[in-house]
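Box S2. Input/output pair 1.
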Amino acid sequence: MSIEDYIVVNALGVLDNPNAVASTSASGRLVQTSDQLTIDARTLAEAHASGVTAINVTLGYTMGDFPPYQHTLGEIETWDAILRTHHEHLMRVDTAEDLIEAKRQGKIGIIYGFQNAAMMEDRPERVATFAGLGVRIIQLTYNQANQIGDGSMAPGNRGLTPLGREVVAALNEHRVMVDLSHSGEQTCLEAARISSQPVSINHTGCRALVDLPRNKTDEELRLVASQGGFVGIYFMPFLNSSGHARAADVVEHIVHAVNVCGEDHVGIGTDGTITAIDDLDAYRDRLAEHVAERRRAGAAAAGERADTFPFVPDLRGVDQFRELARLLKERGYTPTRIEKILGRNFYTYAKAVWGN
């Protein structure tokens, strides 16, 4: 089997050409908004060439000086317009079977997802509004605390607030994935325990290998998997204690996650683009300012540094999924297990939460 035969799902990624002047992915801007994405011919051609079937794209309020609810509604409108403009290449994913349909049609499935639930404010009934607008994944917190619970960098390490428990119940009711990436440990554990549906950690690493707050403990990983959930390993600097993560580190974290969770519950959520940054030297010049600004805003995670790329340099670009498959094969993984990790496990999880 080859990558063309697999369902490949990036459980958290970016569709953008980071080399374009207007794009957010390599700009160093603190706040990245969907109307600053550059989805041009190169972006689309390289997404198709990569073999990816679907991407969970971040839209809505994550951080910054915006009114969270209104900003999020605007972001959804922006993505609706993007899909209309590029309807020959892109389609929205609402159900698990839409992943199969995207593969059949040769389109890139776009999954609407949030990386913060701050736009709920004090109204959990807004989950129904967002579900009706096509949002299929809602991450409870970013790195900071919000009204739902604590993020990974919040010092209190609280569990869910009473409002947070209401939001989880609403997400379950409306069959929206509860994503526990970026959450603090207690928020993650409590949400996983009270959720009536399986939950996910769409982009993370393993804290047993690298002790950083953005990585998840074995207890968190095991609990999520034991309830039928999904864990996506990212292509981020937090996979190596030096901050200089390589493809081999991605493999090690996948192997550890499989050992803890079982092979049916692990996938990938790269947290990056498919189109690679062409001029890494120029990007380095902007990176220090970007990291400093995130620290000033209280949004940075431990392990973000001016000398570390927020991606894995030798696992990027059009061949990133093929290269990962090759490395997993070298590690002794069977084609069936590799297929699960690249997307089949996310599809199974999506069926459990979204239905067909």
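Box S3. Input/output pair 2.
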Amino acid sequence: MSYILLSLPESNSDNESNLNFFENNLNLNSKNINKINLPVFKIGTLDSLILQSEELSKLDNQLNLSIIKSLEILNSLLGDSTSTQLNLKIDNQLKSSYLEKFQWKNSIYRIEKSIDELINLISNNSIQLDNDLRNSYSNYINIKNNLINLKRKQNGDLSIKSLHEIVKKDDFIQNSDYLKTILLAIPNSIENEFLNTYETISKFVVPRSANLISKDNEFSLYSVIIFKKFENEFLHASRENKWIPRDFTYNDSTINKLKDEFNNLLIDENNLKNDILRLSREAYSIISIDYYHIKFLRSFVESVLRYGLPPNFNYYLIKIDNIKNLDLIYNQCIKKFSYLAGNAFSIDNNGNLLNDSKLNDYSNIVDTNYEPFVIYKIDLL
């Protein structure tokens, strides 16, 4: 859903006449048109207004991206973008209602402050919240990836699978100064070859020590007892024979820790997911509030630059039900309000719009695409 925010100088436009024009010429009904009342902000010098215009333009784009990011995070967590966006609210209101009934939140963004102070207040608030959300989501992704790796180890074959649920204490030589138990994942296709050769691939392998611990469709897990002094030689020979050594040392505390690790990660992942869901909804709402305040503040600043003083303007929020109507509305508004630009825009005898290349001085300090009025497209994210 999209809107057009249009600002017109109060002295040059009659509100009733404008509303009649919108309804009769733009294929709109009264429900699609909302008049927004904005306060008059503290105005500084012309130079400061130009700098504020540039800063507001940058912040407008930045907050737009922050809102999109919060939606992307919500969609990634919930998996249904349409349902997610439909259920989101801004300041406990439906998104469309908040924008169409917009009121400047003076309790937070006090109009006694200068425009520079308001820009900094809104910017710092949103940027900090955006950073918090991104950092929290990054932490969540790390935990989720760790959990995926653990699940892979739990559900994979015996060459990669975590062994703490498979092996037992009795499978290992305990507290020996000379002997050590080695675990090997043997491809089933060469299991007989392994049994016939493991005793002779290196020195001092304990004869008949191979013990089958577990078996799956791809591998068989065997333990073999060797002398510690020849461990490296045995492991090297095992790899050359395509036997996969499994690095595992039995320890009761380690076993218990591994058993708890997965459950703890599940709990951490679930808790953090709930936290990020809450934070992303909060970020969406707060940054959207900031975004629309920036949008309207930008409209005020541009109006002062475009129309001059006194800063008395009419603001109209026009709902676009069909995006095809956008060009129609734009062109009709230019025809209707081209007089605001002096000689920059005019209409020929056939009713065609003429655009004078010699725009007035204000064209150099306001928007790149010059229009005879202040107009912004707002997408309801």
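Caption for Box S3: The two ends are 8 Å apart (CA to CA). The CA atoms of residues 204 and 227 lie 6 Å apart.
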